[in-house]
User: Fold this.
Amino acid sequence: MTARAMPTALPTAMPTALPIGNGVPRSPGWWALIWTIATEACLFAYLLFSYYYLASQARGPWPSTGPLSLTLAIPQTCLLVASSVVYWWGEKGIERGDQGRLRLGLLVTFIMGVVFLILEGLDWNNQPFTAKTDAFGSLYYTITGFHGAHVIVGLLLNLIVQIWAWRGTFTRERHLAVTNAGMYWHFVDVVWLFVFTTFYLTPRWG
Amino acid sequence: MAVTAPVTVPAAEAPIEELHRLWETPHTLYGALATVDHKKIGKRYLVTAFVFLLVGGLEAAVMRVQLAAPGMRVLGPEAYNQYFSMHGLTMIIWYASPILSGFSNYLWPLMIGARDMAYPRVNALSYWTFLLSGIFLYTSPFLGQAPNDGWFGYAPYSLQLYDPGLNMDFYALGLIFITISTTVGAINFIGTIMKMRCPGMSLNRLPLFLYGTMTASFSIVFALPALTAACVFLYFERRFGMHFYDVAHQGNPLLWQHLFWIFGHPWVYIIVLPAMGMISEIIPTFSRRPIVGYPMVALSTVATGIIGFGVWVHHMFATGIPPIAASYFSGASFLITLPSAVAVVAWIATVWTGRPVLKTPMMFALGFIVLFVVGGVSGVVTAAVPFDWQVTDTYFVVAHLHYVLVGINVFAVMAGFYYWLPKMTGRLLDERLGQANFWTMFIGMNLAFFPMHIAGLLGMPRRIYTYPAGVGLGAVNLLETIGAYIFALGVLLFVINFFWSLRAGEPAGSNPWDAGTLEWASTSPPPPFNFAVLPTVRSRNPLWEGHPGATAEGEVGPERSSVFRGPVLDRGRETLATSPLEGHTMAQQLMPEDSLWPLLLALGLTAAFYGFVFSVWWLACAGIVWVAISLGAWLWPTGDEADERPVHLPAPGVA
Ligand code: HEM
Assistant:
């Protein structure tokens, strides 16, 4: 046997020291979140597909009680978009090692999220239909309810990250949890834009 | 990262005891419930899914007695409805996909030279939710209220008005429950394939089995939410009086069909692509040569997964959809046969140009190809809309789906068992019993299902509990029943062979088939850490390097793989993380310790689902709160970690 056939020494050398691959962007944990968001995004896509399918097949006015009021929905939308910006501002803070800015960003985002949910509850109460009235009502409460549940999950994640932030767990280099909880929050935010457009705007367009 | 002196050691010098101490799960009750070892989880998956195969088979056996002769009274119409619905659900959802996950869980880290999957605790979660969702589903027959609207649960029959029991609530909630298991399992596979391959295993060196499961996993991530949405609507409509499928209130039953088949057709590929991948591993080993057309087979696997999303409407040709839509989906359905044909041609060419060795795994693989072709032909003819109108909802479709499912799934699974069980148990199965096993299953299967084509063309509808005498259906049905029992005998032979091998089987050694892929470099059964030193590969079949055949095929470049020499990593549970495309070493990955949280989380879900099905709302809420608490505890950081660790090199000469 020639020396080449014997798998002894490796031409490409192994480095003697390697970074730890946990807790950084593009680590396995980060990818897990990406694919979780992908499958959840698909869930919302199918839910909204159902809305458009039933809307396209409906006979008579859709929704039967006329387009939904925007009085609360527009402030809700602004609030959620703004909260994403605040979160991003806090995250930028920790990238410079500024603990205070991170804590403030997380706290304000949390409060904005809670206010969003309160407005959502008021809006639910104000609708002239219920979940049992017809397909529109059922879709409306189911899909906004699903979104609301995701907001709650986002807030719980925010809470956990906040506890760590107040204890000073995060550093400039290592703050993946902040990034991850933030990605989830932005995702929930983007989903709302689709939900809002679907239920509040498209019935007005024709 | 600047210092790059080689720190690899030969396997013989690795600190084996230290590795055992780090990776071994304690043999205690705690260890059994908390383990995250992919091999233990894989074996549990295999056993549990096999039990579901036996249960579903028992249901089929009862149905076949009922249908053996006209006018039998073993099962009444309502019981028959529950039987075929549970049979279909059990087989398709709780057997066919989980059994392949079992193989993947056990084999993936071994085949890619890693020490575990990317998310070991998620892996445990996916097993527990699979098991508990199955137990949840099988509560229903004990209440006499098993799902009774077929495995695809069409509305409006499934609505409260027409089906008032808990039957379809168990259906909807059971399916939502198992989608959790399947989804987190798929994310685990994707993460593993992206990060955990050993150095040098670039995408074009990945074993084809991994392509199969990977494509299936992507399909799961994108397709399964459609099922979740459909079942959530169904449950809400039944329990809370909402309207999604009910035409009287602007709903539409076709919405169910769309959502169900958007999930359902990709699902068919989810349960065949990994099985095809297993065949692509077995055929080369027993043809004594690398597979012909590796890149084509890999690409056709991915292509099948993608086109699989574009064919769902072919299940709905008979619903009065517009002809233009029907034509589009018919075309896509014809198209999807092309990549499958590529795989078949590659397998046949491999056997043809190789030196085939007809051991039992190879026999099942060849049987698989035959059944694949028959099932493919009866499938492609139903892609033609006018023919489909003729045979839809007849036994022709039952024949087709069993050729596909038994042929492509069960036969591949049997081939996989005969091939890989020796790796898992360390013992070979008996060869003569194995051959007998193959022939009984092959003959039984054809006798059971071929006559169904004829019954279907004669006009026998599916899902009826009996048929009248004197319409010419008695003889074919009797044949089918005899065939079914011969098939069952074949399954029994396998079970006997398995238990016999555990007691008296020949020791397998690490590579009984002289195969080329990495799992055969580890001992049989493998140690808890899989590999004492982490391998580096430079070809698709690292163990075949130096074989004249492999070199002649141009499979091997100038560099050689290093399988028995490499870094040890023994500062904790560690493995290497690599880059997604090229497989360059990037980092050391710290792996989690055993944990009870996956099981506790799954139990919380179980409580919630029982709460939902029986309308015990406090239980449902408690379950959900418990899930949230478990998640928090799971994600809680365990301590601070240094940013870099030296790759450990034991002092020379220390064993
Ligand atoms: C030898 C083994 C088997 C026998 C004898 C058998 C027999 C049957 C019978 C009698 C039916 C009912 C047909 C009807 O009344 O419409 C049926 C339906 C079905 N079987 Fe099997 N089966 C076997 C194995 C399998 C396997 C391994 C799978 C899947 C992996 C499978 C999947 C199905 C499905 C999906 C249905 C349709 C259920 C429905 O109509 O909702 N079967 N089978």
User: Anything to note?
Assistant: Chain B has a mean pLDDT of 89. Residues B 57, 60, 63-64, 84-85, 87-88, 91-92, 96, 150-151, 398, 401-402, 405-406, 409-410, 448, 462-463, 484, 487 surround protoporphyrin IX containing FE (CB under 6 Å). Chain B is about 60% helix and 5% strand. The first strand of chain B starts at residue 9 and ends at 10.
